[in-house]
From TrEMBL, chains A, B, C:
InterPro entries: Hyethyz_kinase, Ribokinase-like. It comes from Alicyclobacillus mengziensis. This is Hydroxyethylthiazole kinase. The gene is thiM. Substrate binds at M42, G191. The keyword Methyltransferase does not apply. ATP binds at R118, T164. The lineage of its organism: Bacteria, Bacillati, Bacillota, Bacilli, Bacillales. It is an enzyme of class 2 (transferase).
């Protein structure tokens, strides 16, 4: 299925994506989901996250502004999602920056089965054990053996692994995709990675139950491609980061399946 | 008093609106209040909410991202507001989506006297007992007897009740208003309902003390009309949700009393 | 060093600024830092703030939406910053509005050595003991002896003191600068003060270690001037607060050293 067809599927289903995300980008992530045609909900209370995750089409967890309460909320939502077959996307924002973030990422990934693990190249390098460098929440480099380590991790944990950056890598442990859409302005605004995590939730949220992992990977490839093509469109009318942010929501809203399919730069590596 | 005259009154008084709102929309709600000419303050600490509510012109409570701490903060702020005669607006975001939200809405409405209860048609249907459907935080329908149930609830609780949607219903238990301004783009951005809740605070915040409930209802009608006419203006220059959000703040800022009075579509039903 | 040269220094160093700020403006503050060329990180957990502050170039503390947890996070981050020689900027948002805010500002300033204290004229008046009026989070006036009181406070606490408003005052206890760039639209959006607090972090974050206090004051003067000149540029293309916000990020991003140096209105008073 081409990426544009996934976009149509998302718009038809209007999947409910339960986000537990950071306070920096909640508004942006919600607007990105609305713009693409999904239905975002943010809920954090331990008293309700299991109920909310159960009725969602996907759960998107982002550890940008972590606290012990948020970790617990993520674990409760994730366990509920696992129980009811709701896909889970996890974004280990800033892992490697502090010991606490490393512990949190370990706690979350050891108690929840993920469908997609997404981060920048530095974060994913650290998660999959190929090394990497994270300063604050910025990646400052990945090692050459990242793709191989991602594939190993994906196979061992039976999850899709996504490393985004100038180029984006996606793997289900078997196939590796290299995606080269996007625009430098995407890295001048906060929340573009976190918005993508939400979109990944929307796209894997419309995968038919009992599909093989490779179908989730294709949905992830489609989500990233849609987001990055929207970024390219937005850059055409933006003067800087502020107008780019507004134009990005406009572009997500108006994006068509044909536009995505024509612009898509997806390379299947093996 | 026409809606435009209420707008002038708000701009003259620059009412301080104490918001306890959700983390998705705090920025948007604050900017909407600034743009219309009010003064927003957000404060959540149990240690200060009673003090802040006491000096405010209105308190706007929104349970979008609820936690036990937030519920307590709302109750403390609301009790203080009730004690000092400060009007309270309550927005039961996502009621019906989880049992926890139902409990929270019950706890809040049973301990605080409201001046305005506002939600989408699904939320209000659940609050007033006419039924309704809420998925995540989206309303997916209201029953035909919503207006009658709203009037009953308004009379019993002596509060204005507002159900927003394609058309907006307002009642003080006696009169029912049907408002038909607005634009579909308002539902493509997060926080438009929550911003309106803040604006309702600003408008009821300038009602003279000891006014009858019907005066609060008129202030509510004016707030909704101003917001929706601004939405119509914004839609004329917007290309999609991103540019619409920016244009909406611009429109609120430049909105004139005459413009509102001319564009207003307000029908008094009985 | 001229303000434009400080801008170049910031862009070269891309300083990591650890923000503990309020939930209203986190997104805006992060985007302002990205736009100017710095690297923002937001981290609040008691378990990690000391680690994050230690690796940052500056720590920016803002008490906009205060809770006991946030106060503790600020103190832990501030103590770590003091220990490792990382500059600290503190913004006592809304001090004077409630007793709790006064207590919090006292607790924070008594346990952390600041490099820059920044607020609006009302907040700073209260902090430095010259009096002032704060309603909610808006300043409504400063006393005539504010500059003298600021200088006294700066000398006693060995910190730069900044009072922003229609004109901005900066002092290191010795010299007093009066800055008159800026635009009225800056006060129509929420978070412009808080964004400036973040930028102050970025600029003092590139001051060479063991520099005298006056160098920090010069960095502060540069940060304010860059921000306000960007505001002037943004106002030229904005129609209202919404488009101004977007244009402000664009302007920060495209701001050049020459542009700042030419537009700068900096008066050294004594």
């Amino acid at each position: 299925m081409k990426p544009g067809q996934w976009l149509i599927k998302v718009r038809d289903a209007r999947p409910l994506v339960h986000n537990i995300t950071n306070v920096v980008v909640t508004n942006v992530a919600a607007n990105a989901l609305l713009a693409i045609g999904a239905s975002p909900v943010m809920a954090y209370a331990h008293e309700e996250v299991a109920d909310m995750a159960k009725i969602a089409h996907a759960v998107a967890l982002n550890m940008g502004t972590l606290t012990p309460d948020v970790i617990t909320a993520m674990r409760l939502a994730g366990m509920s999602a696992n129980t009811y077959g709701v896909p889970v996307v996890f974004d280990p924002v800033g892992v490697g920056a502090t010991p606490y973030r490393n512990e949190a990422a370990f706690l979350i990934t050891s108690s929840i089965r993920l469908n997609v693990l997404r981060g920048n190249a530095g974060e994913i390098g650290l998660m999959v054990g190929s090394g990497g460098q994270v300063t604050g929440v910025d990646s400052s480099g990945a090692s050459a053996d990242l793709p191989a380590a991602m594939q190993m991790y994906a196979r061992q944990h039976r999850t899709v692994v996504v490393a985004t950056g100038e180029e984006d890598l996606v793997t289900d442990g078997d196939t590796l995709w290299r995606l080269t859409n996007g625009h430098p302005l995407l890295s001048t605004i906060t929340g573009s990675g976190c918005s993508l995590t939400g979109l990944l939730g929307a796209f894997v949220g419309v995968v038919d139950k009992d599909s093989p992992l490779t179908t989730y990977a294709q949905a992830a490839v489609a989500a990233i491609t849609c987001f990055n093509v929207a970024g390219e469109r937005a850059a055409q009318v933006a003067y800087g980061p502020g107008t780019f942010q507004a134009a990005l929501f406009d572009a997500l809203y108006h994006l068509t399946a044909d536009e995505v399919n024509e612009a898509a730069k997806i390379e299947q590596m093996d």
